[in-house]
Amino acid sequence: PPVIRREDYQPPAWLVPQIALDFRLGIEETRVTARLSVRRNPAGSAASTLHLNGDQLTPLAVRVDGEAVNDWRMDGADLLVELTGEAHEVEIETSVNPAANSQLMGLYASNGMLCTQCEAEGFRRITFFPDRPDVLSTYSVRMAGDKGQFPILLSNGNCTATGEGEDGTHWAEWHDPWPKPAYLFALVAGDLVANHAQFTTRSGRRVDLNIWVRSGDEQRTQHAMDSLINSMKWDEEAFGREYDLDLFNVVAVSDFNMGAMENKGLNVFNTRYVLAEPETATDADYDGIESVIGHEYFHNWSGNRVTCRDWFQLSLKEGFTVLRDQLFSADMGSEAVKRIEDVRVLRAAQFPEDSGPLAHPIRPDSYQEISNFYTATVYNKGAEVIRMMRTMAGPDRFRQGTDLYFDRHDGEAATCEDFVKAIEDGAGLDLRQFRLWYAQAGTPQVAVEASHEGDVATLTLTQTIPATPGQPEKQAVPIPLRIALFDRDSGRHAGERLIVLDTDSRSFAFEGFARPPVVSINRGFSAPVAIDMERSNEDLVFLAAHDDDPFARYEAMQSLVVQHLVAAVGGGLSETARAEGRKAIGQAFAAVLSDDGLDDLMRGELMVLPGVAYLAEQVLVADPAAIHEEREGLKAWLGSELAESLVALHDRVSGVPYSRDAAARGARKTKAQALVLIAAGDPAEGARRAIAQYRAADNMTDRQSALTVLCNLEGPEREEALADFLRRYQGNALVIDKWFALQAGSFHPQVLQHIEALSQHPEFTLNNPNRARALYMTAAVNPKAFHDASGAGYRMIGELIRKLDPINPQTTARFVPQLGRWRRIEPARAAMMRAELEKIAAQPGLSRDVREQVSKSLG
Ligand code: HT7
Ligand code: ZN
């Protein structure tokens, strides 16, 4: 497959200032007529050929300035039309079959409704068009279809006219006044009902808000609506951004490849990020809805009003919008807990990506299939990079930078360089060297050496950035580190400082310490780096109990556990050292359990042990099963050592009645963590408490946390709860997804047999991405299932990839990176993982999506 390179960018030869689309809707056949007003781009080449992208389309008719033409030709899947003048009207007819579109890109059918997904290159599956984000057009859309089947007809912008047609049909016309690239086009037609509300912007514009769902689901949309209204208000206050249409529609669909899509004025969402009520949605689901609703809404400015010049600039909109949604969620809830969760996601998903065969910079240099670049690197590391600029500038100056960015580039297709320049100019920063963060892949490692002489403490910091594919050598990047040095005697520090390490190595001296201080570094996770510093258990226990930066407190707990588990798995711990390590961890946990100054939300966070993926990252070649077993061993030890306090804690938080306030959410979080540890220490007591919690639950958070624990255990309680859960939520697809995921994610000894049986369950289908991911993605990230010593986990995912690829390549390609980590896994397992990749590579007719990921993983 051809490789697309960033350096080859050329402006388009032809622009399309306007497009009129006419749809005659049908589930099995939709006819599309596209009328493009095209004109030469003075900034483009003088080519007379109009190059229109297509994907599995045949032109049924081509007209230029009203005349049918026959001298068009195909270039692969694309349509080429010769034009002679400066401006023309080009009309093209195509036909598509939405029911047959299992890829869920372009126009497709989901549960009897029609909807579109055009980012990144789906529009070319609807009609021929210069499907690139730097071609901006105003869209006029007319659609007609059966009124019974499609009572609701939606597109971008405002509805300008509706009417009745013949034979029970009706039609609607929509116009979007804001020029946009084709990837932001959307159409939805179906039998939907709405939750309506209104929002008045700060300049007085009254905006109608609708969240469209299938009848019966409307009472589950209030949290999404509240989140939308909060987002609109927050963006005005935090970034000075106001909504710019009189209407904002959100539609929930159950078949969707990703979380949601920010189409102008018509966001399309995976149902899982819209529907929630306490009985069916966990607190984490509620948080997910708030953040995704916010994320898509914020794209209206960071993505839509200012869009990307080309897909290499994806982080321009995604990294920035992730940062915006993170800041929004932090303001809506607990800033400390949000930061911890964001870093946990980064470490679990992005760090492994950055150290594997698919590592790429946040602004990639090349791709074969752009869908493969919607990654944790582009999104989450992208957000971290912009967050560092904010940390260095301070929030107010950063805001001046973003104001300048939006002013300067409103209505344009911009680049990451444009963004950096605007922040540089607006915030008054020198970001010359900082630009390397956009160009280099790999997570910087910062080694910290502490020394002490007289009353001076010196920290020597050294950065190295590991080699990544295509980038053997790296240059030093500026790394802003928030730092505080605690005096051992007073237990306090004299104020936090921001230091910037911008060379390979540098020493920083701090005066006034009679004894070596306790170092708290990278507070708030001010830089997305790995800190390598030898620290005594005593110092870490001190920070875990006393650091006034909540993230640093969490980090100290994590480091204590990481240091211990890594040493234990590496075989480097004597029995005495193991006992000492556990004792220190036990001490830190006991302090967390009994600290009255902690709120339960934070307590729950501090009780979460580092995950196996992150632990595996700490060593060059990992034995994931050994890590998993050692981690489980520590859980069991903590559970029995702290049994009394854990039981008392579980009893206390079980008495807190359900509400959505922070205290009650904290109680549920702590309850879940306490139950996990109790069950690890004493499975019989765990089962007793878990089934009691399950039976008494009046909300999904408690029910799910009880069932999570029961799924790991053998016994009648497990079977009772699983059968009850299935019966109780029959017909609710999102909850049935949980039923599959809970079993696929369990540490039960027979987890692989359970997954195999579940794949044959009548409720299972590969055609729905949520269901396929619930079973198989959960299994692929479950070390107990995926890394089973027999290799059965690898074979299961390999087989899945081969089976799912012809149905939905985009969803399939996301499974490949799990197998692609073989080089970092111990040799026996690595050989089996590699063998699966080779088997996939040998499959004829592999999609471009999967081929790119597999060949890079093998290469
Ligand atoms: N901007 C949206 C990306 C997206 C997408 C990309 C490829 C294939 C399907 C997709 N659905 C949505 C989502 C977002 O980041 O807001
Ligand atoms: Zn996004």
TrEMBL record:
It catalyses: Release of an N-terminal amino acid, Xaa-|-Yaa- from a peptide, amide or arylamide. Xaa is preferably Ala, but may be most amino acids including Pro (slow action). When a terminal hydrophobic residue is followed by a prolyl residue, the two may be released as an intact Xaa-Pro dipeptide. One of its GO terms (biological process) is proteolysis. Residues 538-858 form the Peptidase M1 alanyl aminopeptidase C-terminal domain. Residues 79-184 form the Aminopeptidase N-like N-terminal domain. InterPro entries: Aminopeptidase_N-like_N, Aminopeptidase_N-like_N_sf, PepN_Ig-like_sf, Peptidase_M1, Peptidase_M1_dom, Peptidase_M1_pepN, Peptidase_M1_pepN_C, Peptidase_M1_pepN_C_sf. GO terms for molecular function: alanyl aminopeptidase activity; metallopeptidase activity; zinc ion binding. Its cofactor is Zn(2+). Coiled coil: none annotated. Pfam families: DUF3458, DUF3458_C, Peptidase_M1, Peptidase_M1_N. Keywords: Aminopeptidase, Hydrolase, Metal-binding, Metalloprotease, Protease, Zinc. Its EC number is 3.4.11.2. Residues 442-533 form the Peptidase M1 alanyl aminopeptidase Ig-like fold domain. Residues 224-434 form the Peptidase M1 membrane alanine aminopeptidase domain. Belongs to the peptidase M1 family. NCBIfam families: pepN_proteo. This is Aminopeptidase N. It comes from Novosphingobium lindaniclasticum LE124. The lineage of its organism: Bacteria, Pseudomonadati, Pseudomonadota, Alphaproteobacteria, Sphingomonadales.
